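User: You have something folded?
Assistant:
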Amino acid sequence: MKIFSMIMLAFLIISAVSVSVIKNLLGAIIVFTVYSLIMAILWQQLNAPDVAITEAAVGAGITTLLFVLTLKRIKGAKR
């Protein structure tokens, strides 16, 4: 396996564990976005460009936007 893929796998594991541990919700959303982008890179390394594009668009794009909007709405409701 390539050294780049091994490094990306290490970052993927670190980000997966970090999402579970982080108490700050916005921080967890940001780390989740990083997780999705790393996953998209790994899909590209595995010669699955269609899955990589979908992961980048849905995982890092739309899901992150929905999480941030939901967090904003929840914080607005607490006031």
Notes: The chain has one domain: 1-77.
